[in-house]
Amino acid sequence: MADKIVALSKELNRASFKCGNSILDRYFHQQVSRDLKAKLCTCFVLCEDGQHLVKGYHTLSNASIPRELIPADISKKLPRYPQLPVTLLGRLAVDENFKGKGYGELLLLDALKKSREASKVAIGSMAVIVDPIDQAAEVFYRKYGFIHLPDSKKMFMAMKTIAELFEIQG
């Protein structure tokens, strides 16, 4: 059976998910359903086709960031709006039993692809931002090309960069 990424649904087994970070685990077990109901985010899960075991998840939301946080080489090409629309990759986690198998990268690429597609047809977004939960997460995002926003813990990838990434992949 093949792995697939699908929208979170009630039949999936969230109770057994454990990534090793209590904040991310608690969010997935206790909060994500309320956030989905309130339309604060979307949540996608990685599972094996036909199985209910969650291997990992990510969440996406609309957000905005102050123009002054955007790197100068990018902001000089943009209109002078005080806030600019972005997509927030709020959470990304892989169950401890499945770490080291490339699932984090798979979830990240899925989040970037969904963000890019939405920015083309559904809602304006000039970048994806993340707010790494710890040093390991920061290293992970940096490995894939995210850059730090000045005077912020947030990291940033321009939608143009994401589009180029998927053009290269085909």
Brief summary:
This protein is an alpha+beta fold and 170 residues long. The protein starts with a strand and ends with a helix. The chain is 35% helix and 28% strand.
Q: Write down the CATH topology.
A: Aminopeptidase
Order of helices and strands: EHEEHEHEHEEH
Average pLDDT, to the nearest integer?
Answer: 92
Uncertain stretches: none
- In percent, how much strand structure appears in the residues? 25-35%
Classify the helix fraction into a percent range.
Answer: 25-40%
Distance between the termini: 24 Å
Number of separate structural domains: 1
- Report the strand count: 7
- Please state the overall shape, judged from the principal axes of the Cα atoms: globular
- The radius of gyration over CA amounts to 16 Å
Structure description:
The protein has 170 residues and is α+β, with helices and mostly antiparallel strands. The protein has one domain (3-169): Aminopeptidase. The protein is built from five helices and seven strands. The chain has helices at 22-37, 72-75, 103-121, 135-143, 159-169, and strands at 3-7, 42-48, 54-66, 83-94, 127-130, 147-148, 155-158. It has a seven-stranded mixed β-sheet with strand order 1-2-3-4-5-7-6, sandwiched between helices. Strand 4 (83-94), helix 3 (103-121) and strand 5 (127-130) form a beta-alpha-beta unit. The protein is globular. The chain starts with a strand and ends with a helix. The mean pLDDT is 92.
